[in-house]
Design a protein that fits this description.
The chain is of the alpha+beta class. The protein has 31 helices and nine strands. The protein is elongated and about 90 Å long.
Length: 627
């Protein structure tokens, strides 16, 4: 593209019309990102509602992959709506994308869970996520193109950086609404049904967004091109079927966008997932920390967009990639020490060993969520991963049953296929033995209180000798008389047990520290200031790579194919490289037995983009985008 002087645009201030364009484009896009990111912010509750039939490790991966489903289809949305935007116009394409996004989000809020409609629930959920992804695939390229085509030369980085804030502001808005509802109704009610309210509120945002989009005019560059009759008749084939344009798209993807994507999703989404699911920090506290970091860091999108007009897009993006590559490991390790010091101390002093037949140990990456990992090795490693326990797999004899060694304790696993009807009892025994060993080794596990009906009290005491309970003392203490039919309904008794008792009601005792084990981060030990500082640094890395990227992509493609040309590499990078990051990193960590091992995924991808970008990517800030 031609290189032009920038003096006619860089000195003047922003006009009222330009402010309106940026505000209208940005606000509508904020609402669209809000809709899209509700799923990521509420992944724990969605997993429990729609994927409850799967083991926790598989459920986490499946939940993240359903989140990623929306990203996987984004490139197809880029092609469909990019073509429409280059043929029909930027404004009308905006209206279509926001309608699809808003309707799909609202339907998630009223979709019954798997307990009600079975396998249909996750299938419909994934379909709705894919519709969201299609809509978002057409949104970003249009917003960035629309704003850039209104911006004067020498100011495109600053103007388009406001669009770059929309993804983070959309996430920030979703977190604020979630936290507000949680505080208003309580955690239990929110987990049961309140998580649906933010999805239902999207219908209000949809109405506002459609009204805003109706006030917008078509971009001057598109109107000029249309009046001159220089539109592309086949934007897709021209953008990607001609090598002169296709090579630009390939370079944009591999030299910038792929690396930008993994830094973005590491800094915002994987960091949140790591806090909640690996470090076991309370979900509400983790959301508040991320919200504070976003509030502190978001202004840097505009700062780096403005700076890119001065020194160029490339130096800032490459610096962000390099910093992420060099510091991710120390930052995430520091996050562990600040977020769950007891877990960090236990991991540093106690490491599990799984001795197993190598043929029984599989990579537990399950893209459909339907595979069952049944071998003794897989069951053992899944249990350790669930509790964030580092482990090493040592080859054992062929055909042998996997054994877990934790400190002085050695615990035998089981094969669920061979166990048959005994699998449930063996699983309960394995989990209890491992959890007791972890607790004794210093891992921060706690046990909830449990309600025990009188008919099962003797068996409960016999099965839990570590509690040192006395049946007579328990029966002499406080109890609640509950009808047996309610005990059956609450699954505290089976129908056969109730019939055998021959009672209309019976005493129920609450046993402190007698329930299921769970790993926790002690709120009193969570160091808020260091955690927020680390999260803010990660957000600043995001702003470095993402702030200038819109201007760079717009400047790389000619007007007639700009919407299509820039949208596809952007959404392949962010939809595929970025969207698959949380699930891939989690599965890599689970396979290796190291909670940090998954960080190699963003580091390697960022490294590839850094090398290609430094060698082949040209500076674009002075390109003439009207050419």
């Amino acid at each position: 593209m031609a290189n032009v002087a920038t003096m006619h645009g860089s000195a003047r201030g922003m006009t009222a019309e330009e402010r309106k364009v940026i505000f209208a484009s940005s606000l509508g896009t904020v609402f669209e990102w809000y809709d899209f990111y509700l799923y990521g912010s509420l992944a724990i509750y969605i997993g429990a509602t729609f994927f409850s039939q799967y083991p926790e490790t598989t459920r986490n991966i499946f939940t993240l992959l359903a989140f990623a489903a929306g990203f996987l289809v984004r490139p197809f949305g880029a092609l469909v709506f990019g073509r429409l935007g280059d043929l029909v116009g930027r404004k009308y394409t905006f209206l279509v994308t926001i309608l699809i996004m808003g309707a799909s989000t609202f339907l998630v809020g009223i979709l019954p869970g798997s307990a009600t409609i079975g396998i249909a629930a996750p299938i419909i959920l994934i379909v709705l996520r894919m519709l969201q992804g299609l809509a978002l695939g057409g949104e970003y390229g249009g917003a960035a193109t629309y704003v850039a085509e209104h911006a004067p030369h020498g100011r495109r980085g600053f103007y388009t950086s406001w669009i770059q804030t929309t993804a983070t502001l959309g996430l920030f808005l979703s977190l604020l609404i979630i936290l507000g509802i949680q505080m208003a109704m309580g955690k239990e009610a929110f987990a049961a049904w309140g998580w649906r309210i933010p999805f239902l509120l999207s219908v209000v945002l949809l109405g506002i967004s459609v009204w805003i989009r109706m006030q917008m005019n078509e971009s001057p560059a598109f109107k000029k091109m249309k009046e001159e009759g220089t539109q592309s008749k086949a934007p897709i084939s021209e953008a990607f079927g001609q090598w002169k344009n296709a090579k630009i798209a390939i370079l944009a993807l591999l030299g910038a966008v792929a690396g930008q994507a993994v830094v973005w999703y590491s800094g915002q989404f994987y960091a949140l997932f790591f806090l909640q699911n690996v470090l076991k920090v309370d979900a509400q506290a983790a959301n508040i920390m991320v919200a504070i970091a976003l509030a502190l860091g978001t202004m840097f999108f505009v700062v780096f967009g403005w700076l890119s007009d001065k020194i160029g897009r490339k130096p800032i993006i490459m610096a962000g990639l390099l910093l992420a590559m060099l510091t991710y490991f120390p930052l995430f390790k520091a996050m562990t020490w600040a977020g769950n010091p007891a877990l960090a101390e236990a991991q540093a002093t106690v490491k599990a060993t799984v001795t197993a037949d190598p043929a029984d140990c599989n990579f537990q990456f399950n893209p459909t969520g339907t595979a069952k990992f049944t071998t003794s090795c897989d069951i053992a490693t899944a249990l350790l991963t669930k509790n964030s326990v580092p482990y090493e797999v040592v080859p054992g004899a062929a055909g042998s049953t996997a054994a877990i060694k934790l400190g002085n304790a050695e615990i035998s696993s089981y094969d669920s296929i061979k166990a048959g009807a005994n699998a449930k009892a063996l699983d309960a025994s394995l989990q209890k033995s491992v959890n007791i060993a972890l607790h004794d080794a210093g891992y921060p596990l706690v046990r909830d209180a449990v309600k025990v009906p009188d008919a099962k009290l003797n068996a409960f005491i016999a099965a839990n000798p570590e509690l040192k309970l006395n049946a007579e003392a328990v029966r002499g203490g406080p109890s609640t008389t509950v009808p047996t039919d309610k005990l059956v309904a609450d699954k505290l008794l089976t129908a056969d047990e109730a019939a055998a008792a021959g009672m209309q009601s019976m005493p129920v005792y609450t046993i402190a520290n007698g329930g299921a084990f769970k790993m926790v981060a002690d709120p009193a030990q969570v160091k808020w200031v260091p955690l927020v500082a680390i999260l803010t640094v990660l957000v600043i890395y995001v702003t470095m790579v993402y702030g200038p990227i819109a201007a760079m992509l717009v400047e790389m493609f000619p007007t007639r194919i700009r919407y299509t040309g820039m949208s596809l590499p952007y959404h392949i990078g962010n939809g595929w490289f970025g969207g698959l990051l949380p699930a891939t990193a989690f599965a890599m960590s689970a396979a290796k037995g190291d909670i940090y091992y998954g960080l190699w995924y963003p580091i390697v991808i960022a490294g590839i983009s850094f090398v290609i970008g430094m060698l082949f990517l040209r500076e674009t800030k002075n390109n003439d985008i009207d050419a």
